[in-house]
Request: fold
Amino acid sequence: MATPGFRYQHYKTSSHDLLPPFYVRRPPAAKIRVEIQILKKWWILLLLVVAVAAVVGWGVVRKNAAPRVSFTVVKRQTLISTLPTNGKVEPIEWQAVRSEAGGLVKSVPVQEGQTVARGAVLARLSDPSVQADIEAAQARVAEARANLAGLRQGARPADLTDIDNNLARLRFDLQRENKDAETLKRLQAKQAATAADVQAAEDKVRQTQLEISGFEKRRGSLGATPPDVDAARARLEDAEAALRLAQQHAADSEVRTPISGEVYGLAIRTGAYLQAGDLVANVGRLDRLRVRVYVDEPLLGRVAPGQPVTIKWEALAGKEWRGSVERMPAAIQSLGNRQVGEVLCTIENPGHDLIPGTNVDAEIRTAVAENALVIPKETLHHDASGDYVFLLKDGTVERRPVKTGNSTVTLVQVTNGLQEGDRVALPGDTPLQAGEKVEAQ
Reply:
């Protein structure tokens, strides 16, 4: 019988002879599994120790290694120094056209951007009272002429009837005109009528009173005397003056441009009501424009008359307008949180694409340096001692003081301290120290 914990094994030789049986000691399966798990844990722990040692060793090596630094080469090129800023466009020659009289806009025969000649009609106003005034004035002129002719021919029996009829009509007109004058005075107090309207109404009242007085004097006379003829002649002249005034008011109902040019800033539309003095439109010549360029006060010393100017407008991307500085500012003013001077520039606008009132970007070319030594602006450092760069010298960085000249948005001219072909450090993540060894790339 086999002993517990042992297994009987029977081995054979190559000749198939049976060997004597013997017993071999074998551990249980559960114990084998435990030993395997322990062995795995030791291997994992060993691997972790090796990994940590590798990381620490790499860190020590890395700490002692020279930092890798990017460098750029000092080179020569033409450096165009510019001053970017902003500005506003306006015409050089222009005129604000305003209405001389009030009224309803009957028609607007022009459009925004249209080119017009001097004297062209920009708007027509409708005022029914103007035509009524003309007709009334014409009637008074005709009546005054007839009366003067009758007096010159001598008195006739029918003259009394005519005088009475005229007196009745004039008294009726006087009542109506008095009411109109009072109404206009009330409207003026409410700022719904102008002083000119009130004055015109009062002039009509006085004119009618004078005519009534004249007819009453004629009624009291049976014959025409030289003074009567003179009075009739004076009444005719007054009536003719009133007619001319009414016709002038009618002419004022058409708003015309005093200069030739392009219409912009059209401020009215058909059906609107205009008061005397209201803006109708602006008319200007747009082939050459003025740009008020706003330059910050510390930068004004770089600007001078005659310097080239380039204008860009976001609404027309890719298009540029060119001109030059015309006049320097006479004073400094506030623009938001900036203190600026208004530099006046003149630009050419052959296609009339740029319109007055637009906000634009401006770039003034302040200087041109031929064959200048230049470096990127980001390589330049500054402290209390002045400007300096980190120069690559025999595998180490050297602090090199420099003097600068003109600059652009990205480049700066070096006038002293560097030579063509020198290599200066670009900004990186690692701060540099003078004398530090580096690995250039």
